[in-house]
Amino acid sequence: MKKWALGLALGLAASSASAETLDQIQDLGQATFKAFSKDLAGAIGYKAISPAEPLGIIGFDVGVQLTATNMESPAAWGDAMSDSGGLDTLVLPKLYVQKGLPLGIDVGAYYVKVPDSNIEAWGGELKYAILSGSTVTPAVAVRGTFSGLFGVDQLDFETRSLDISISKGFLMFTPYAGIGQQWTTSTPKGDAASVLKKESFSDSKVFVGMRMTLGVFNVSAEHETLGDVSSSSIKLGIVF
Prior knowledge:
Elements (H helix, E strand, L loop, with lengths): L1 H15 L13 H15 L15 E11 L3 H7 L8 E13 L3 E9 L6 E12 L7 E12 L4 E13 L5 E16 L10 E16 L2 E10 L2 E11 L1
Antiparallel strand pairs: 1-2, 1-10, 2-3, 3-4, 4-5, 5-6, 6-7, 7-8, 8-9, 9-10
């Protein structure tokens, strides 16, 4: 977990100076636009960063999370952004909230705003625990998610995903893992629409993570691979 946290901190330092405005998307070719869109899908696609076990009917989890996504096509980002030579890592600071409901159902949402950029995004999730888990059995859950980009005048962008995950707590630690599929639609607007066409694609994803609980506080770390794009996340929350 310390290694992931260090990587995220380094990524934030590297990206803070290079965060720019996405306003040159019309300069991309169609193949480059798709590569750029796949990177963006990996960055803003919903990442719950939580085990399969439900919060419970009175459970509430709120806090902050940080996701660093490695860009597979950094040059494309350089072409799409003002005054930028490229982007190797996109770091997204997020606010999140998750609420437990009856029958093993949880709902959640996140909001992100990249400093010094027009990149804003939000997302939501609905999770159902098929098995709630116990001291001897794991929890298993299915989850549906949505995320959307706004603030970028040249692009309509959204993702949807379905996944299944499993987790099992041991003392204060709860490791978890899951697999799923994400569907992305990337639609150019304005000047970009005159030279580019909509891209729709899907990618499989695999994720592994760990939550550590200390009283009402929890720290979670997760690594996800979506197609060829990888992201590492850390989340700090309060559960009550």
